[in-house]
Design goal:
The protein folds into 2 domains: 128 residues, GSPII I/J protein-like (Pantoate--beta-alanine Ligase, Chain: A,domain 2), CATH 3.30.1300.30; 114 residues, Ribonucleotide Reductase Protein R1, domain 1. The N and C termini lie far apart (84 Å). Strand 7 and strand 8 form a beta hairpin. It contains 9 helices and 9 strands. It is α/β, with parallel strands linked by helices. It has a 5-stranded antiparallel sheet with strand order 1-2-7-8-9, with helices on one face. A two-stranded parallel ribbon has the order 3-4. Helices cover 39% and strands 15% of the residues.
Length: 335
């Protein structure tokens, strides 16, 4: 009988066992590191969110102090001029507060008041939309906001239009309610990418300075007046046909006061003051309906970075007639 040598089998077996054990150990270690990183990211995300909510509380506190101090709102107040930039445990927090009533509230069009429709048309002209574009988006937006199923003649769109959409789009119903976000405009007939750029719904840069052009439109949950102390030039010009570029520049210079010289701003204290100033420029009978010098709606943008996690939070705050602010809308990842 022939015997084969068994030399080295035990050693090979031992090496195989060590290799398998090492592979298992590496796999377990990698999985453990992945779990540690995942849990760390979750912790940092939650921490960043809590800091962003703290920025909301700070904004509400600041708005209450502002309300108690004065009853007008303008762009040279502390709530607007001094952003919060703080180092927090494990990261940073940056928050800014903006007035939303200096912008044209698209939901105002739901009431079909002539004054709002006229101002909207002027804004579309200022933003250089042609006649066909103006007719289309005015009609389709009105149909989206109103509660009926009657299309604006020639240009409007109700359920029958949206339910008849072909691939690759999916049919849906008209809103027939107020807008909740500006992004909803993408659902409305006629609001193409190019139109949204013209309306500055998406951020547009000045071709000369490279800076972001000011926003013109907003959506708020109720009818709102325009704050003449915070409105950009385009919105001021839309108030009345009598508003020329020269008059608009005078208004902006007047409300800024001597800030550029280290002095104080000179905002309008009332709509009456605004009318008196216009009369001093020999501008009479300007439509100041739905104009105000105080704001109820503000936008808080908070950006928090903790470790590798980043939280972008935008909150719409409503300040009531006692100065108390509440959050009416909150969005993440929109800054």
């Amino acid at each position: 009988m022939t015997y084969f040598p068994q030399k080295g089998i035990a050693l090979i077996t031992a090496l195989l066992i060590v290799a398998l054990a090492s592979t298992a150990a590496v796999s377990i270690t990698s999985q453990l590191q992945l779990e540690i990183r995942r849990n760390s990211n979750i912790l940092h995300h939650d921490q960043a969110y809590i800091y962003a909510l703290a920025a909301e509380d700070f904004a509400r506190y600041g708005l209450k102090l502002d309300y108690d101090n004065n009853k007008t709102d303008h762009l040279d107040e502390l709530w607007h001029t001094i952003p919060v930039a703080e180092e927090v445990e494990g990261g940073t927090l940056l928050a800014t507060l903006d007035d939303k009533q200096g912008l044209f509230n698209l939901n105002n069009l739901a009431n079909k008041r002539p004054i709002d429709q006229q101002r909207f048309q002027r804004l579309l002209s200022i933003l250089e939309l042609d006649a066909s574009e103006k007719q289309t988006i005015t009609a389709t937006l009105t149909d989206w906001l109103d509660s009926d199923q009657i299309s604006e003649l020639g240009y409007g769109a109700e359920d029958d239009y949206y339910q008849g959409l072909a691939e690759p789009q999916r049919p849906y119903l008209a809103g027939n309610r107020l807008l909740s976000e500006l992004s909803e405009l993408r659902l409305i007939k006629g609001f193409s990418k190019e139109i949204l750029q013209k309306l500055r719904i998406t951020t547009q840069l000045d071709t000369e300075t490279g800076e972001a052009l000011p926003a013109i439109f907003t959506v708020l949950p109720e009818y709102t007046a325009i704050n003449i102390n915070t409105a950009p030039a385009e919105v001021i010009k839309s108030l009345d046909n009598k508003m020329t570029d020269e008059i608009v520049n005078n208004i902006i210079s007047k409300r800024r006061g001597k800030v550029d010289e280290g002095g104080a701003a000179e905002p309008f204290g009332s709509v009456g003051d605004f009318n008196n100033y216009l009369q001093s420029l020999s501008v009479n009978d300007v439509a100041t309906e739905a104009v105000t010098v105080a704001t109820s709606y503000f936008s808080l943008k908070a950006k928090t970075t903790i470790g590798q996690s980043q939280m972008n939070l935008q909150s719409i705050l409503h300040r009531n007639d006692t100065g108390i602010s509440t959050v009416v809308r909150r969005s993440q990842g929109v800054i």
